[in-house]
Amino acid sequence: MKSAQNRRSGRAVAVATIMMLAICGSGGTAWGQLVADPAAPGGTARLDPVHADVLPADGDGFVPVRFRPDGDPALNIRAGASGWDLSRNGEIRMHLQNAMAWPVTVDIRLVDLSGGTLEARIGLPPGGPLTLTIPLQATQPRRWGMLAGPPIPWMQDKAPVAVVLATSGQLDRSRVASLRLAMPRPDAPQTLRMGKVFLESDPATPDAQERLAYAGIVDAYGQYTRGEWEEKYRPQDPEHKSASEADTAFARFAQSLDRLPTPEAGARAEETRVDPYGGLLDVDMEGIAPVTPGGADVKPAGQGFFRTAKATNAHGPARWLLLTPLGNPFFSIGVNAVQLENSQTFVEGREFMFEALPQQGDPLARFGGRQDSAESLPLDAGAQRGRGYGKGATFDFYRANLYRRDGADFGRHWLTRTRNRLLQWNFNTIGSWSDLALGRQARIPYTRTIQVEGDFSRLSDGSDWWSGIPDVFDPRFEQALERAVEAEAKPLKDDPYLIGYFIDNELGWGNGSATDPAARYALAYSALRGDAGAPGSHAKRALLDLLRSRHDGSIEKLSASWKKRYRSWESLEPALGAAELPDGRVAGVAADLAAFLQLHADRYFSQVAATLRRHDPHHLYLGARFASRTPEAVQACARWCDVLSFNLYVPTLDSGFDAEALRRLDKPALLTEFHFGSNDRGPFWPGLIPVAAEADRGPAYDRMLKSVLANPDFVGAHWFQYLDQAVTGRWLDGENGHLGLVAITDIPWNGFVSDVRRTNRQARLTLREQLKARR
Fold this sequence. Notes:
TIM Barrel
């Protein structure tokens, strides 16, 4: 961890404290079998520092180890020639202290005599010494049904307890050769104080300490029990309150923190004048030319529906815009997943994680239910792999808290309160995955996502995070597409507040920036592994037809280009094994595989565009919300859609996104997902772009939105998401992120919301200034 200073925390710890930590940290068990003592390495272990300095032992039995900012500094604690026999134990423990005044990252690795490893990475906060428990088998929080586990350490019986909750690898526990502690490339010297390494004298079940880490982590309101923050509800003397009195107390607390924003400094009515859709008024429209959606028979801009437009700029590249149905410039600032429902978390089999769940007859029991994630997400999908607790009884803490606050009519109150919040926080768009009722009743512009589901064949990108990508050569895909679009578009086609549709989400197109051909041309390889004679291998037959066309029907030309020897076209029809697959590093192979990617993507996007125009000729086609992508897929989308959409988890658009490639496509783009999360407010996963603490989320949001506005090809940005995810993971895939504008109690994160509101307002003013300065 980078820091401008290098200083010791200066906390000396008495031997009595160390003994207390050894007892409390091991669940009440006294000192166990000693594995290694760095303070007295002779006979038990040998210390082998690499780019690190082992300092003289402290008087309390700890050895300070200073990790230098050279390469990857580490301390290896090596066993004797026969290794340590840990086969009868499920975990190893060590006394450890971060001696710095800031958190540090520590990599831990156990190595056996055959080279097998068990590895983990932890964030170690500053503070006193603690007992760190390391399970001796691979484990992940996904095993317990969530994406990330509780932060360490936590306090138990007034002592800090730490259990490593994410380990990977395979270890022969009967022949452990070494324990390694490393710092990943520190920018300044960092010091750890290293104590004894030992085993329990009474070995517990393999997951005893792991279960302890998850025990009682959620209170009756769905909040994390071991943390404290301003917006957290703390019931006072609940045993002396009736259920109605407790609900009244909660409602009073929630209302006290649901603060209306104060007027912004310097705000002037004429600066923020907007039409009913949020479009800027009093803008000089000369040089702003509407763009008609992809060949559709539609009304011109300003006569009923959202449109794209391009504004000329005498001082630089033209600026893409959205125009409201009244023809005024609009920059879409939205929020995804504004949902009343869908916050259920599994409780069955995990009851020990919850302090209190409603019993039968309790009014809150109505918010229990049952879910099977496999009905919405295949068990072999990447988001499901390794996950436990994906089926069974659930509970929805969010709706239970709304009931506590608003009573039986909580749904109506939620609609009103949520609409008012979005407008007060200067959002002007309800993004994807949001309740349709809110979009239609709030009179705020909104988007819709149409998911195409069916029994059609699919291709694999090797990950298939949600599922495989459609085999668009399968006639069943076109039929499923027709059904999905007709069902969604029919009731919405005349709604002026609907901006447009996304069709599908984060499809697995492959990785266009990968150097590994298997990732770069994943869909083409997936087709080659198919059997052209099998009923579902439409993509394989399409690929073979393409290859015949590109090589004049000559198998000899194909063989020469691919530097392989194929007997006949028929020899390519069966599923190809690894030895028969072509090498994508060969130029001829790469060109052919890229041509297939282009063919597949063009067929997909052209089919989608034609189907959407047939059922709704008025609204915009907003693309497919790219996460993984290839140049072929993006180019095909640009030919057929009105707006390209990207789910981008990067700090800003200036890092990790090819703005020049987008500019060459001459198509507007929408940032359809981004977020910044931390793990200091309850849910443990800090998202795909983590920040250190809650206070850092607002500045990160500001930097991202400014970078989007600075790119003339982007017409908006949508935050993911409105509500924090459940502490123990959402029912669909176990995601448990602190990503929301509001907590599971429906209380806003006021500091973050204040920053967001200010940034959103400034974005509107910035767009006005950009349009004024272009002349």
